[in-house]
Design a protein that fits this description.
Layout: H1 4-20, H2 33-50, H3 57-64, H4 68-74, H5 78-94, H6 107-122, H7 125-136, H8 144-150, H9 152-168, H10 177-189, H11 192-197, H12 206-223
Helix pairs in contact: 2-3, 2-5, 2-7, 3-4, 5-8, 5-9, 6-12, 9-10
């Protein structure tokens, strides 16, 4: 049985590997980015289409059109593979709040784009199905805490970093960027996820999502308005 320290160290090593988002090529054999993309897309389709239980190394390799050897050379087990998918999803959200050196940030537009990307994801029927399946995965060999750290927590951290940068630039007031990031995401999610899990219809029209996103962004920026 592994010790607690050993388990923590293994998780840190895996987390660092995922954070670098780089694959180590074999000598004389360049990395095939197309295969990397195919693997993550296949895993994502299975994860959000059928649930975590459907993400097996065999199923992903078959759907991606790659050999299991190729798959294992990139992801040593399905926990790492699912975590990579979760992290990639978080990165796609963060693309809307990327700061460009020398360019004055447009906090309102960036937060609005960020909000719509997240809302469209949250109210997608496949995501609701995934959440139900995730709840059923408790007590299995799946590392749900690791998935959280690589998905939702990464989103919180990236938003927090962006808010910190805005505060340093004098655009907003933000004393606790992590808390502010969580408040923003909580306002954004409201009870739609809960409603969806209870089978209550959600108005996922672009008009409704945009109106809600605009309200949240306006309210949040008002709370963090710079006094300078």
């Amino acid at each position: 049985m592994k010790s607690k320290t050993s388990t923590i160290n293994e998780r840190k090593r895996t987390d660092n590997m995922l954070d670098s988002d780089k694959q180590v090529a074999q000598p004389g054999r360049p990395i095939d980015k197309d295969k990397d993309q195919a693997i993550l897309e296949a895993a994502r389709e299975l994860l959000f289409g059928e649930g975590p239980h459907a993400v097996t190394m065999e199923a992903v390799a078959k759907l991606a059109g790659v050999s299991k050897v190729t798959l294992y050379s990139r992801h040593s087990n399905r926990n790492e593979l699912i975590a990579a998918v979760m992290r990639r999803q978080a990165e796609s959200f963060a693309e809307t709040i990327t700061l460009i050196p020398g360019v004055k940030p447009n906090a309102n537009k960036s937060l609005l784009d960020f909000s719509l990307a997240i809302l469209n994801f949250l109210v997608d029927p496949k995501h609701l199905q995934f959440m139900r399946a995730l709840n059923a995965a408790h007590g299995t060999e799946l590392d749900l805490q690791f998935f959280y750290l690589q998905g939702p927590q990464k989103t919180v951290e990236r938003l927090s970093q962006w808010l910190t940068a805005l505060a340093q630039a004098g655009e907003i007031e933000c004393e606790d960027s992590i808390r502010s990031a969580e408040v923003f995401l909580g306002m954004l999610m409201r009870l739609d996820l809960v409603r969806g899990l209870y089978g209550i219809p959600i108005d996922n029209s672009l008009e409704n999502l945009t109106a809600h996103a605009e309200f949240v962004v306006k309210t949040f920026l008002k709370l963090h308005e710079s006094t300078e």
